[in-house]
Structure formats: C-alpha cells, structure tokens
Amino acid sequence: MDAIIIALTGLPSSGKGEFSIISKSYGYEEVIMGDIIRNEILSRNLEVNRLNSNKIMIDLRNTFGKDVIAKRTLDLIIAKVDKGHSRILIDGIRSMDEINFFKNKFPDIIMVAIHANPKIRYERSISRKRIDDAHTKLSFDRRDQIELSVGIGDVIALSDYLIMSPNTVQEAHIIFSKVLEEIQNK
Known about the structure:
Layout: E1 4-9, H1 16-25, E2 29-32, H2 33-43, H3 50-64, H4 68-82, E3 87-91, H5 96-105, E4 110-115, H6 118-128, H7 137-149, H8 152-157, E5 161-164, H9 169-184
C-alpha cells in the first residue's frame, strides 16, 4: 500500500480539529477514533457526554486491550484505502499500544502531535461548547489526567512532528500547512 497515513494526537482542544481541516485541503480522508467511543456510548443507550466518554474509553481498554480502539478503527482505514484514498488522517491516537498496532499494519505511519498551553486549551474547550468537552476547570483537569493515564504523553513525546499550537487559527493554518507539505514531499 502506498498510502500516506498520519496518526494525529494531542490533548483535548490542542488544535487537532484545525489540523484536520487543513489536512482535508491536502486530500486527506479523516478517521476519528473518538467516533468509535461515541458509537459505543450510543450502542449502550447512554448519553454522549464527558463522563460517559471517559468511562467507556477506560472500560473498552480494560475489557478488550489497550489497542481496542485502533483495532476497531482499522476496518474504516482499510475501507478508505480500498476506495482509492491515498492519504489518511487518523485523529485521536491516545497510546503507544495504538501506535504499535498501526505500525504493524502501516510501517511508514507518520506520528504528528499538537501541543498547546493548558490555559489556552481550557479556553478553547469552554468556547466551542461540544457536548463531550469539559465545561469546568475541574472536569478539564480530570480529563487531562485520564488522557495522560492511558499514555498520550508518550505518544506526544515520541511523535515524528511536535507542533506547538499557536494562539490564532490563521497562524495554526500556516504552521499545519507547512508540516503537511513537508510530509507530502518526503
């Protein structure tokens, strides 16, 4: 397979959504790992919210293994490649177990991490008002602790590209475009 596959990671509200928007202009098809968790929440007839997202993410990993979300995402990726898509963005990598699973399937996978100041991420989380975002400082801090407990810090530290998310969307688009162009020209 000659597809370019990017594994995107970063703590909540770091700028992954903006990276995804820019990647689409470069021809990337997106697969969102969080959709696996949201679908599981709905299949259990639960409300999609931060508490249930955290609970189900941990439950799935404890029950089926730390790479379960990656395994459930694989079919979505393969379906996109089978349809002729040669650029795939996997949004939402959380652990080295997931990265190792994907590296076994796609040895040339490129890891991109986006990092942003916690204060800025909290402000973004409050302003975007997504149903499964943290809406208080306490829940925001708790979510970071949960994300770090599953191993996202290791993924960020070992990424091929570590992008410091700027404060403005315009600056982010410039930086993200430069990274995507560099990946494309490898």
